[in-house]
Each structure stands twice: as C-alpha cells, then as structure tokens.
Amino acid sequence: xxxxxxxxxxxxxxxxxxxxxxxxxxxxxxxxxxxxxxxxxxxxxxxxxxxxxxxxxxxxxxxxxxxxxxxxxxxxxxxxxxxxxxxxxxxxxxxxxxxxxxxxxxxxxxxxxxxxxxxxxxxxxxxxxxxxxxxxxxxxxxxxxxxxxxxxxxxxxxxxxxxxxxxxxxxxxxxxxxxxxxxxxxxxxxxxxxxxxxxxxxxxxxxxxxxxxxxxxxxxxxxx
Length: 224
Fold this sequence. Notes:
Elements: E1 9-12, E2 21-24, H1 32-40, H2 44-52, E3 66-69, E4 74-76, E5 84-90, H3 95-111, E6 116-123, H4 126-136, E7 142-145, H5 147-154, E8 162-163, E9 165-169, E10 175-180, H6 185-199, H7 205-218
Parallel strand pairs: 5-6, 6-7
Antiparallel strand pairs: 1-2, 2-8, 3-4, 3-7, 5-9, 9-10
Helix pairs in contact: 1-2, 2-7, 6-7
C-alpha cells in the first residue's frame, strides 16, 4: 500500500457544472466558486466563467516553481522562454483530466509551431504518472510532484481548487487566463485567440480576460 502522508485526498464532487474533482489542500480552504454563484445571484456556470477570467488573487506573471521532469531531472516551469504557456494541472485519478489529454495533445501538435507550449503538471505519484503518460503517448513536457506539486498549486493564490485547472500566458509569461475544469474544443479556440491578441499587442491581459469571459459565457453547455 502506498503511504498517504501529505498526499491530497480526492473527493468526487460536481463543481460549478464542470463535474470536476475537488480536493482538500488545507482545512482553511473553502469552495469559493459556489459561494460566488450564491452571492451574485447567477448560475454556477456563469460565476465560474467570471471567476476563471478574473485577475483577483492571481499573480501577474507565471509563478516560478521547479519539479522533476519525465527524466527525473529538476526543471523550472519558466524553462520555455518566449513561449505562450498552457500549464495544465492534473492527476491520473481525475477523470476530467484524463478526458482532456487528447485535446491538449492536439493543441500542441497544431499550435506549437506558432509558439504555444503545453506543459502538464501532474500532482500525483511519479510511477503512476510515468505509466499513464506512456499509455496515453503524452508527447508534451510533464513536470511531476507530490507535496512539491501541491506547493506549486498554492502559488496561484486561488484558494480551493479542483483538477484539472489550466493557466494561459502570453509569450512574456504574463498570466492571461485561468480555467478551472475540463477544457472543451470551443473553449480552447476562444482562449487561444485571446492569447494571440495579447501577443499581437491588441489587448492587455486584463482586457483579454474580459473579452474571453464574455465569449465563454455565450457558448452553449458542453455535451457530456
């Protein structure tokens, strides 16, 4: 049996219509997205779209952290200078995380040449991640951590989170978007377009968040 120690305890929950796994990082953290929905008298989906695109609590640039890569060597998340980063936090036990991996692989294959770089951050047991990455033929970089992976999560200052969650940066590693839950193809198109406009100097990261939030809210509900 694997030691549990500091490892996160997963609890299956429906969070803001995404059907994501929520987990306890620390006793002080509360589920913030449902509270926003109640206070604002909006639906959970609307509140989540607003919260995900908000700058509240987020650092302006991608926080630096170092985890082991697939080869077991320490590597900084800031290793990919000049790239528009798509940093996806996930775990092998998370069903929505597993479902979105084919889309992430497709995004990397189709948009890597224009400067987008996906990096998966697996907060999980290393052996489990290595096995699953091989099974899924994950061809984008992975960083892996257990307690140090959880420490990386807390650098984003968002309180209670679920897996998966993904942050999008511009090519200067400024945070543009924060997405909680599984990414679907139409959402990905909107978020990639927002980053492109920031890279082109058409929008600031803050303005891109507002534009993307409106477009995401106008999408029809994703089919299960």
